[in-house]
Known about the structure:
By secondary structure, chain A is α+β, with helices and mostly antiparallel strands.
Amino acid sequence: xxxxxxxxxxxxxxxxxxxxxxxxxxxxxxxxxxxxxxxxxxxxxxxxxxxxxxxxxxxxxxxxxxxxxxxxxxxxxxxxxxxxxxxxxxxxxxxxxxxxxxxxxxxxxxxxxxxxxxxxxxxxxxxxxxxxxxxxxxxxxxxxxxxxxxxxxxxxxxxxxxxxxxxxxxxxxxxxxxxxxxxxxxxxxxxxxxxxxxxxxxxxxxxxxxxxxxxxxxxxxxxxxxxxxxxxxxxxxxxxxxxxxxxxxxxxxxxxxxxxxxxxxxxxxxxxxxxxxxxxxxxxxxxxxxxxxxxxxxxxxxxxxxxxxxxxxxxxxxxxxxxxxxxxxxxxxxxxxxxxxxxxxxxxxxxxxxxxxxxxxxxxxxxxxxxxxxxxxxxxxxxxxxxxxxxxxxxxxxxxxxxxxxxxxxxxxxxxxxxxxxxxxxxxxxxxxxxxxxxxxxxxxxxxxxxxxxxxxxxxxxxxxxxxxxxxxxxxxxx
Amino acid sequence: xxxxxxxxxxxxxxxxxxxxxxxxxxxxxxxxxxxxxxxxxxxxxxxxxxxxxxxxxxxxxxxxxxxxxxxxxxxxxxxxxxxxxxxxxxxxxxxxxxxxxxxxxxxxxxxxxxxxxxxxxxxxxxxxxxxxxxxxxxxxxxxxxxxxxxxxxxxxxxxxxxxxxxxxxxxxxxxxxxxxxxxxxxxxxxxxxxxxxxxxxxxxxxxxxxxxxxxxxxxxxxxxxxxxxxxxxxxxxxxxxxxxxxxxxxxxxxxxxxxxxxxxxxxxxxxxxxxxxxxxxxxxxxxxxxxxxxxxxxxxxxxxxxxxxxxxxxxxxxxxxxxxxxxxxxxxxxxxxxxxxxxxxxxxxxxxxxxxxxxxxxxxxxxxxxxxxxxxxxxxxxxxxxxxxxxxxxxxxxxxxxxxxxxxxxxxxxxxxxxxxxxxxxxxxxxxxxxxxxxxxxxxxxxxxxxxxxxxxxxxxxxxxxxxxxxxxxxxxxxxxxxxxxxx
Lengths: 479, 488
């Protein structure tokens, strides 16, 4: 990207709220049911039916508002957004428009230089999801599945404070971890429970007014957000540099072709004719309610990250990684609390060996075959010199494969470290005797050869000699 | 078997049922016979549920025999065809819903059924309750039993005509701008529109959600009070229904009017009011005064804006409420649609009548970007002013009285080419809807053989006072016993 362009991005994130029933009806929100089996008369927009607000969504939205340091409105109002579409049964979507439940929030991400950057959250409002049109496999007809109709969504709108695709992803990840910490959304992106629209524009560096923006709809993975924004930024810059103009329009990201495509222009945009929904009362929240919700707030990612740094003394970037997910953070704390080993060592093992094993097998932390308790016991065996860090990898893989606890595996495979000095001395003597040339070089000042000798000893012992002891004995004998 | 079951009020029928003088089956058979003989001329019914009614009547009689009689046990009722009735056609008098069978009962229907009422059928109405003469019905106009060339008013015209013609002692209605009270006035019946939120709107097909309210048309205020007691009350399925205890409305009817403060709106007796109607209403006011009421003039300075305000708010809401009728899931679907847009346009174009289309277009316009502030928002502000006027007035008076409609029943076809004149027939009733207040129309005279209604508006949740005042007036006159020629 050429240096004279500045990128301006705002995100609208749709987080599906994790309620049992829908926002305005008693139908279930469970994912994956047979089409149209989870849509009641209210969801189907039958004549005469009326919406009744699920109180749980208000509590969840308030929780989110407090978590991002926002104002939770004492009075918010549901409005109707009117447009015709087959998957929108009533011909309008119930949403919040002029008076949303959450306003003026913020969160912090790291910018390209690693500095803390504030991202404003304009608002977050409650709304119902639409159903789904199905165009494949129906012999030329279109089908409609209204199971999703009426599913509660929290639409979280950022200020245009994001300056790159990377920042946009960092912001989206932060929101993702917040909603999951709060337990208000499962954040499942494959199921569409967490998705976003990105408003992207560019302007020459130094220009005050914003460029014309394009809105990229329905991005449902962090990777797509990054790729779609990067493509769109390139497209807009190229367009302007070639003398063209960016059109205000809605675009779709095609992940197969890695490009965005025009969906509809501003001229074709609907006039949604918003007006307050006369079927629903304004949502009124008093201070006592807000305080009661505040009392239920868990420790949030930023606070937990800081506590990990302060209390466990682990590196900042490791603390950041471990706190992206509440379950991962809990796992870390469970291991760190149970082992005699150093917390940084725990962090290293989780971020390194454990995470790659999870990735390799496509598992989430809660599905890890190695429990926190078992991992702690294994790390204890490193700490007490029963095994070396290198042997630990083998022990861990065996635990992963279900061969038993660390102790059982060490015993069964004979992996116990050799710590008997006389035994190590005997092997060291053999190695020195067998490599007179290297001994001479070492004595002449080639200190680095110590590694060679250690390696030889380890080879002889099948990696089981205590590396610290080997080192000390070698240095003693070679001096 | 008594020959005059059709002449009895609900209250009288309840006594006879209680005494075992006749059964619910007797009543039901008698009224079904009358419907069969007279409905051809009146067109008051869209659906007659004879078979179901007889079965329900038998069940009611059995329940009574086993000591399980609910408050409306065995009593007949007719529901306006805007109320959803399970397994029975619910058309809203529209081609759009010509074949729509509701899978559920409206709360009003359910509560009455649970109280033991027997539904005789579904009454004709203006299409989607949009009209003041019952001429917008897809199933044709209803004729006024007082003069078959005249309209019974609307939109609950079928309910009013059926009650006036003694085809049923009671029928439900809905009132968005006067749709219960105006037809009651034009047919010499009692029409009660409760406070907004007093009766659940669940299952009542929405016209203008912030104005719609269910009520009843009867031949006596006692019957209206009895039915309101069954219909009223909080419904968790309607967020706008209000959780307030339901008083015994019948028990409060017999209070003296001594000291009751009755407000008169001077503008409601100006040139817009038919002179003879004015005379009848003034006589009624004089009678109230004679019964101990104190008449005072009240000022409602913004009330003259109620018709234009209403014709912004109501169409705006209806344009959105009627969007669900798109030919996709239920209702009329155009044949051989070329694409989605064509399906929408033709289904709605064919399914809706002219007045409904006019209001959808008006409503769509007033909510459009660039017009919202000038129309919809302004209308909501004026609505607030009107409500404030009423609130101030009710600090000084207990009820406000006047004529229900500006004229007696008008000829069918007389106003169909001039929507504005038609809209003005609700000029005295619309204010109560905009302010969410209860109102009642009781018969107070005949002008050239056509009934005139006395209109009383009460304060918020002032149904007891309203019914008490109407009842005391009714006791002192016999206008509500007047029966159109040929229907005795």
